[in-house]
Design a protein that fits this description.
By secondary structure, the protein is of the alpha+beta class. The protein contains eleven helices and 22 strands. It binds 2-acetamido-2-deoxy-6-O-sulfo-beta-D-galactopyranose and calcium ion (CA). The site of 2-acetamido-2-deoxy-6-O-sulfo-beta-D-galactopyranose has 17 residues, from loops.
Length: 513
Amino acid sequence: MINKKFRLPARFLVLFAILPAVFLAGFKIISNPDKRPNILVIYADDLGYGDVSAYKRGTLKTPNIDELANGGVRFTNGYATSSTCTPSRFAFLTGSYPWRTKGTSILPGDAPLLIDTSTLTLPKMLKKAGYFTGVVGKWHLGLGSGNLDWNKEIQKSPNDVGFDYSYIMAATNDRVPTVFVENRKVAGLDPADPLLVDYQKNFAGEPTAISNPELMTKLKWQHGHNQSVHNGVPRIGYMKGGKSALWVDEDMADIFLNKVKSFIDDHHPARTGKPFFMYYALHEPHVPRVPNARFVGKSGMGPRGDAILEADWCVGEIMKKLKKEGLLENTLVVFSSDNGPVLNDGYYDEAVEKLGKHTPSGGLRGGKYSLFEAGAKVPFIACWKGVTKTMISDAVICQVDLMASFAKLAGVKNSSPDSKDLLNVLIGKSEKGRNELVLEASGRLAFRQGNFLLIPPGKGQKIIRDVNIETGLSPEFQLYDLAKDSGQMHNIARQYPQLREKMLIAMQKIVGD
Ligand code: NG6
Ligand code: CA
């Protein structure tokens, strides 16, 4: 007979039986990768703060992006790190400020891969954490190791910096080669008609926009963009051959969208048991703006407005797809843009003439290429059905922070130097964003601390005449109180020399001398 002292009451026995089961179930929930959300980053090209109607600044209507904003967190202080493409994308994908690395300015279409393949990038981090990773759309971070042969397997591609799948245009839609690269190969290339690319000199006998202006049936160049002509549009750089692989600008949006949809089909977590990360890099509204006929004339603002409507439609289609696949509650969607807006970026496309009352910069000063606010302050929206609050957040957040924030979400450690874990800010649980942020334009830096923005003196032109945008450069210190003066009309650097000094020292601490 068991000694009475060692007898346990029946209810304790029941507890002992249940506890391990509860513990195991709990553990399973924590460690089951299925429970981590998919991540979809939709990244527009040159879309301004005022171009999204949810920001209530301009007159163009973007109902699908608005729906994301109205179901999630809309940031009023969301930034790219830079006012041009390559550095902003570099920062987003590496979690490191672009100016720490040489050569992060706008790349030509034949540039070698900019990201060191030994770097722990955002996609590599997520891949290691068990995500399927993909990129579709604009790349503009280089390919190969120099002197790239477009007819062979490309050895340094997005697939070498963490993407399981890639379907990209190499650089921009105004740069040759005008082809898509799927994983390591130019898609649809006929080996009998090799593709040749050169950024220094033309190929003998090949027409250009200068020698054969009659080829420019769709758009004419205004500045730059006068070399090879394809699909009636003159481009930057020279190209020959590869005819079967050349894109049709009007079909680009549909092609990218369909690639993203098939990626979702192929990597549906219900089938793979893994979450996915998709970087969907829209090509709109960067020049040349040649939207599909379905959108032509729809905005009343010419091709720039029509291209934005096309991008907005793509956002709607991809959200419909997530809904259809039952993934809305299981996917964090972040929408943003690589830099601010520009109207005339080198083609006669009536962007200026047909603008009407619309304000792409949303009343901010400057635009693409500028150190002023419109350069890097961009639409920034996070939406995860059932998780994100519906709110407007004034917290300062930057795309460089997505790496650390996604690391938190994926349950892994972040080691990226400049990236801050702002996951709670991203999903609207906290409004405590960054206190300090360094911004970049053509290698020049500005510094935001709290609500103040400091631009140290810089030599150079005040206005880029071709695009009619202020650079933000001045021989004097500039200091703005963005809380009172979001349009940066009042330089208070002389009034507040101590604040100016304090900010300069804080900036130098981050940047170095
Ligand atoms: C500039 C191009 C501009 C655009 C930009 C890159 C000229 C005159 N201008 O050099 O059209 O392509 O580079 O834009 O060639 S970005 O959004 O990719 O940074
Ligand atoms: Ca851009």
